[in-house]
Amino acid sequence: MTFYRELIKGLWRENPIFRLVLGMCPTLAVTTSVENSLGMGMATLFVLVCSNLVVSLLRNLIPAKVRIPCFIVVIATFVTIVDLFMNAFAHALHGSLGLFIPLIVVNCVILGRAEAFASKHALWLSLADGIGMGLGFTLGLAALGACRELLGAGSLTVWGDIKWALEGYEPFLLAILAPGGFIALGCLLGVMNHVQSRLAARSGRHVTPPQHLDCRHCVMCRFGK
Amino acid sequence: MKQTLRLISVLTVICAGAGALLGWTNALTRDRIAAALREEKLGALRAVLPVYDNAPDRDTVRIQTGGREWTFYRARRNGTCVGVAFESVSDQGYGGPIAVMVGVTNGMVNRVEILRHAETPGLGARITERPFLRRFEQRSIRDTVWALRKDGGVIDRITAATISSRAVVDALKKGLDVYLEHKKEITEDAPPSLSPQGGVKNGATP
Amino acid sequence: MNPQADPRFVVSPSPHVHSGVTVRRIMLDVVIAMLPALAVALWFFGWNALRLVSACVVGCVAVEWLCRRGMRRDIGVTDLSAVVTGMLLAFNLPPTLPTWMAVVGCAVAVGLGKQVFGGIGYNPFNPALVGRVALTISFPVAMTRWTPWRVPSPLSIEAVTTATPLGAVKTALSSGEPMPYAFDGRTLLDFFLGNQNGCLGEVSAAALLLGAAYLLARGWISWHIPVTYVGTVALLAAAVRATDPAHSIPVAAHLVTGGLMLGALYMATDMVTSPMTKRGHLVFGAGCGVLTFVIRQWGGYPEGVSFSILLMNACTPLINRYTRPRVFGHGGRSPARKTTA
Predict the structure, then answer these.
(1) B1 domain residue, yes or no
(2) ipTM
(3) Domain count across chain B
(4) Residue span of the structural domain in which B81 resides
(5) What's the pTM?
(6) Would residue A144 count as lying in a domain?
(7) Which residues span the domain enclosing A33?
(8) In chain A, N or C terminus with fewer CB closer than 10 Å?
(9) Is B163 in Cβ contact with C141 (below 8 Å)?
(10) Looking at the domain assignment, is residue B21 inside a domain?
(11) What is the mean pLDDT of chain C?
(12) Where are the alpha helices (DSSP H) in chain A?
């Protein structure tokens, strides 16, 4: 079941946000609400799937020397398509995501998957990779957006009017401001590392701490033990 | 040589394909985007103007003053002008420019809406909330001192967001000054039957 | 396994011989040094001071205990460092702040400011200031709400103000009104003794200086940071006052209002987050001074002590790198030149 494996790896094991730590610009900038996170996630998912498909199709035609310009042209095309369609059919969301839609072009996740996966694998697997990575990115953004919006605004805006708000909540503004993005991302990364090392310990596997990290004093994720 | 030609041809083909795809998408979405943009503007106009039966965004007066162009949107009911709306921008916001849409009727400010802003969430961003905007509404344009109470005017600021409040007042005041100065040209009626596009007097909008 | 990650292979730096000084002893002395300011706070703010100081101390100790417990580390709350953090945080809060916000501040201060980095000694930023700045950004209205305060005026009319002196000055300058204070000798003396509106612990420069004298006598702080910090502010204030008297306040007013004394004496001198060498202290103090004055004079906030100390905390590793003392016997200009240790 290679297809299935490529599909689910993006959700947890190689999650683009929490494992690969790619695409940090939209991750930190647009996760001020669940709605924005989902919108950005969907847009990225679409671009990722399309660019993976096209790159995989053309992988034997594109000469190695000009592969990066070719990938970028393909990615930019799909980003522009998303930009135009979102402007036409989800105008309000387009307004709140603003500049970050065109900036999907430079999202490392997309170029990274084109270069590392789609240009080396068949159409079928590239599709699975694109869907999995895109969903993983969307879920990561949504998780971060939910934490930040809940703390920083006391509400959860899923889509348009589908909104749930805490009454009389004094918002902890730091969470939806720029520093809150970094803090929330750091905390979620810590939680993920903690959970992963816990799971590994339970299944009896040995977890190697990242070589460059100074794990002697920090025990947040229990890598040091 | 053959290698270079291949690079060039592959890139050209890909770019041509991308161009074709984009052209097709653009043709597909162009009308929808124009409609969405217009709907966005009409939504703001509907919010600030009294009930009307024309298309204010096609019945405009343009006035050149102070180095920039102001567009005044006229709302009519049964042909008579019932209100005027305009957009004004202040660059004194805390996080960037603040754009407001102001509706004027019978020498009073009818309603105010914030169109664009980049103020701090939960603090300056509270300028978009009704309780603050209501402080401007139903006030006489001529007889109101358009300034914060702190600066000798009559508008109460938002606590801890003086700069943002002041910027909104600034945007409003600039626009109202232009309106008062050119009131005659703006409200002067061009019979709609003569100019279906409206606003011929001071340069019609297509 | 990577040998560097194994604690058994970690070579610790000196001292290898213990002098008997413990963290607890130092922290106890800091608490003692803060008692005069605490007394002033209780005198002026009464119940509110008691409420906030106890909430912060209990909150910080509780968060510290929970973090250590959750990380399965030695508990270590008996070193009193959480008590100091709690007291300093309370000193940085306005008297009317709701208790639950103070507790949120404690969680940020000890949790995000200290324990995520590994606890005492590993935090790059002063925990109490991290808590305060998080609260300032998150609850800007509550953090700038002051109780009405009777201000002694030279005309012996009791004016009531609901702003700190620096806040009132900033408002007056931005709206073109006349200065709210005459800043004559009597007003300044009042401010110096603590009769002004402000955060709990910052109002009385006199009490803060008294406590700092104790710390200095005990040798836990050196004069370098406070003197360069306050000196830089005074120097810049004098220069601006000389060139633009209409839009500035006297030098003495800068020194006795706001959080300058509290910051310079108790928070910039924090052993963990300030540079190691004396030369580094001078750079650190001067940097804090410049930033504080720039924010006070031209910034959007009336007071900038907490932001400047945090920014200079971030520069501390860099300062340490560039003020590293020369190793004895290496790198001298000439072998004949006499070396000074």
Answers:
(1) no
(2) 0.81
(3) 1
(4) 56-204
(5) 0.82
(6) yes
(7) 2-168
(8) N
(9) no
(10) no
(11) 86
(12) 2-9, 24-29, 34-57, 67-89, 91-97, 108-113, 123-153, 178-202
